[in-house]
Specification:
The protein is of the alpha/beta class and 265 residues long. The chain has two domains: 170 residues, TPP-binding domain (Rossmann fold); 85 residues, SIR2/SIRT2 'Small Domain'. 35% of the residues lie in helices and 16% in strands. The strands form two sheets. A six-stranded parallel sheet has the order 3-2-1-7-8-9, sandwiched between helices. A hairpin with a 5-residue loop joins strand 4 and strand 5. Bound molecules: nicotinamide-adenine-dinucleotide (NAD). The site of nicotinamide-adenine-dinucleotide has 28 residues, from loops. Nicotinamide-adenine-dinucleotide (NAD) binds next to loops.
């Protein structure tokens, strides 16, 4: 195998354009597509990912912040972290990639999006069937009793323990996301597995495929005989078994899908 050449022979790193053209072709005729997205889907909307060189976890360690321990033992840091993420979210809008996926759904070719993102940008772009398997930053609830609260509560600065937003039951109000070590929403996860079992192709966009169980969905797709396409800036552990690997930017590449249609009509 040549250095930098994909083992399937379908893709050569030096010839990214060919892979990109093939992906766009496939997407314009696929019938039952499922898309798995990660933080890389939203970096072009101004939201940093976790593991890229300038990702969030280069500045903060996940085990320090996105955990139940942090909520109770380092609450000021915990609330400052999520407040800064909510501020970024207020300034973020769906990008051309989010919009292209919403369009594919409208055309009846995309069955659902399984997302690890907590930013709500797929729904904001018009996608209807979105499975948020890591929850949503656009929701908040009481950690103790589960009662829903407005996420606006999490935008206020917490500078002392008395400033922690509290439910009438006394429990702390927290973001509606899955923290490290917590169980994923089982209903959304089961629906994701079912969708992948029934798809013709799984398109993976902007995820390092380092976090399970999301990272097990590409293998499930392969086991069920579906095609596997990967669009990511950096290599992933599943590149070697994928039918097509495009090393590119999500919004830039998927945005071409809409532009190609515009030039057609
Ligand atoms: P990750 O940081 O591990 O991986 C992101 C991947 O996307 C990297 O491999 C990177 O090369 C690639 N990438 C970055 N910009 C890209 C672009 N423009 N186009 C294509 N690829 C690009 O993120 P992950 O795999 O989603 O990790 C999962 C965790 O990240 C989840 O817990 C998720 O909740 C959390 N997260 C979500 C958001 C968000 O909702 N926007 C932001 C940060 C982290």
């Amino acid at each position: 195998m040549n250095r930098g050449t994909h083992s399937n022979g379908d893709f050569e790193y030096r010839d990214g354009r060919r892979a990109e053209e093939r992906l766009l072709e496939e997407l314009s005729r696929v019938q039952r597509l499922v898309v798995l997205t990660g933080a890389g889907m939203s970096t072009e909307s101004g939201l940093p990912d976790f593991r890229s060189p300038d990702g969030l976890w280069r500045k903060y360690r996940p085990e320090e912040l996105a955990t139940v321990e942090a909520l109770f033992e380092r609450p000021l840091l915990f609330y400052a972290f999520y407040r800064s993420r909510l501020e970024l979210l207020d300034r973020a809008a769906p990008n051309a990639g989010h919009r292209a996926l919403a369009q594919l759904e409208k055309e009846g070719r995309l069955r659902c999006i399984v997302t690890q993102n907590v930013d709500g940008l797929h729904t904001a772009a018009g996608s209807r069937r979105v499975l948020e398997i890591h929850g949503s930053l656009r929701k908040a609830h009481c950690h103790t009793c589960g009662r829903p609260h407005s996420p606006e509560l999490l935008k206020r600065p917490v500078t002392s323990l008395s400033g922690i937003p509290r439910c009438p039951c006394g429990g702390p109000v927290r973001p509606g996301i899955v923290l490290f070590g917590e169980l994923l929403p089982q209903e959304a996860l089961a629906a994701a597995v079912e969708a992948v079992q029934e798809c013709d192709a799984l398109l993976v966009v902007g995820t390092s495929l380092a976090v399970y169980p999301a990272a097990s969905l590409p293998q499930l797709a392969r086991d069920r005989g579906a095609r596997l396409w990967i669009l990511n800036l950096e290599p992933t552990p599943y590149d070697a078994v994928a039918d097509l690997v495009v090393r590119g930017k999500a919004a830039e590449v998927l945005g071409k899908l809409a532009r190609e249609r515009d030039s057609f009509f």
